[in-house]
Amino acid sequence: MATSPRFFSQPLRYLHWASLEKPAIFYSILIGSLGPVFVVAVPPLRRRFGDGPREPIPLTYPIPRGPRKIPQGYDDPE
User: What pTM value is reported for the model?
Assistant: First the structure.
């Protein structure tokens, strides 16, 4: 049985071995390490492509103007 390569002595060989022998762990670490990169890289790209700032979320329900219109024809039969 061959031993696994050590990361610090042969990093590329170790990454190749890990992708073949332990793919779930390897790819989860690979995808998880992209998160901090996206935090730095994505906002400037969004601004470059024209995606501006968002509208603020409304904190109250908008009050309609004018008198309330009561719907007709939905009353219970008497």
Answer: 0.52
